[in-house]
Amino acid sequence: MASTTRSEKKVVTLIPGDGIGPEVINAARRVIEAAGVPIEWEECEAGATVFRKGIESGVPRETIESIRRTRVVLKGPLETPVGFGEKSANVTLRKLFETFANVRPVRELPGIPTPYSGRGIDLVVVRENVEDLYAGIEHLQTPGVAQCLKLISRKGSEKVIRLAFELCRAEGRRRIHCATKSNIMKLTEGMMKRTFEEIAREYPDIEAQHIIIDNCAHQLVKRPEQFEVIVTTNMNGDIISDLTSALIGGLGFAPSANIGNDVAIFEAVHGSAPKYAGKNVINPTAVLGSAIMMLRHIGEFEAAATVEHALLVTLEEGKVRTGDVVGYENGTSTTAYTDAIIANLGRKAQRWHVREYKPLKLPQVPTDFDLVKPAKRRVVGADIFIESADDPETIGKRLEELCAPTPLKLKMISNRGTKVYEPTGAMTDCVDHFRCRFILRSNDAELSDEQLVDLIRRVGSTFRWMHVEKLQEFDGQMGFTKAQGED
Ligand code: NAP
Fold first, then answer.
1. CATH code where residue 257 lies
2. Are residues 30 and 115 both part of a single domain?
3. Are 199 and 103 in the same domain?
4. Same domain as 132, residue 108
């Protein structure tokens, strides 16, 4: 909940942002103020202007302090100007405040024609927001082979999944899909699927179903009205939530919320659209939608419904429509569109209902580092990654000689996931990056660090190695996957 002053005004950090940001944020602020919501705004900077001042993160200390106090942010899009900083200020904000869920509702809107008009699209994508490939842990393993670590935790999955189930209850929704690529990435994407299936048992009132992400994308284009809530990993969610925005009229209509246990950041899905900046032509609906989500988050349910009705009435009547809907030569200005919404405050939409919302219960997940506690664990071998221009046969024979005096044997060598030694008949077009899998000869032994270091030294005497991964078993279950073609 937002902090309050003595006059019970809610205090919210307001970041106008870059490009069209100040125009859309100003529109949302005007509507909220006209609706009489008691909000005190703490206006703060982030993004391009901050990078230009030489602050590398794009987020100054005062902005961080304000968010720590208010816990609620309404923000415009932020740019990372070329030549300044390496990391996006948006991602920095999401990570700084551990906003683990990105919630993106899309709903068919009156007067906004799309190929799906009349089908009643009304769904929410809940995207995990801080893990997965977006942890940004990348390495060049050889000059020509790059790696990005895909980290998925049980704790991260549990938090976003619980939030998605709670969102179903808060919004009176009855069906949830979990979309993953667990058929291929059994441990990472599979972590999300398994966690979903476990937690689903605690919510018998909600129909829970797993769907493979590629089929989900296909079904979203074919029959989007079948979905109510889709919870998914970061990368999947990034892609399908842009797809779902397009189903209802595009980025001008797509709001979002980044929700954490302590802080929530509300923003449009779109960016700073620099070519429209300062022209007073863009569509502020997405940011207004985000502001409506924010009002519900701070407990202003009535005001949120009033603003949503005013927006729906304006769209239903269709007297004012922005350039993204009717073409920029015919479009209403941003300010005239905002004026129309303000003039419609207090009116009720005739054909479009406003959903009943209850407060969203944030998930209480234990704060321990290790949510999963195996009774037994055992290191059974190691994958050593090497750079080599030799053929797999030559590498394999040499590695067998090198490990002969150790307790480990060479189990196989793979190239980008496909077994190439011993040969399987696969026609792999090898690159200079090989994974060499060594396994203990004895089934009940445990690999010690000394033995592993000795093995690395032996391998390193002939080959350039760049990465080592221990092969572990937890409670007798393999904590690693096999290569394509590995027995
Ligand atoms: P963008 O700013 O979202 O704009 C892409 C296109 O979407 C625009 O050219 C326009 O389409 C349409 N559009 C976006 N917002 C609109 C609105 N409110 N009303 C009407 N049409 C709208 O994406 P981008 O050009 O890829 O990114 C520009 C900058 O924004 C980049 O620096 C990027 O990093 C940043 N960005 C920030 C955020 C964030 O802060 N959360 C998110 C995404 C991108 P037409 O050209 O077809 O008219």
1. 3.40.718.10
2. yes
3. no
4. no
Cα–ligand 1 centroid distance for 418 (angstroms): 40
The answer on 256 and 114 residing in a single domain is: yes
Is residue 91 helix, strand or coil? helix
pLDDT in tens, 277-333: 999 999 999 999 999 999 999 999 999 999 999 999 999 999 999 999 999 999 999
Position 205 scores a pLDDT of: 97
- The pLDDT, as a whole number, for residue 8 is 76
User: Which ligand 1 atom is the nearest neighbour of the CA of 89?
Assistant: 40
Tell me if 21 CB under 6 Å of ligand 1: no
Q: 355 to each of 302, 306, 360, how far by Cα in Å?
A: 12, 12, 14
Residue 409 included in any domain:
yes
For the chain, the domain total comes to 3
Q: What is the pLDDT of residues 386-445, one digit of tens each?
A: 999 999 999 999 999 999 999 999 999 999 999 999 998 889 999 999 999 999 999 889
Residues 6+ apart with CB under 8 A from 407: 440, 441, 442, 445, 447, 451
Over 80: is that where the pLDDT of 368 sits? no
Give dist(CA 51, CA 54) in Å, integer.
5
Look at residues 329, 358, 387 and tell me which one is the last residue of a structural domain: 358
Distance 80 CA to ligand 1 centre (A): 13
For 454, the domain range is 377-478
Structure tokens belonging to residue 453: 């270091």
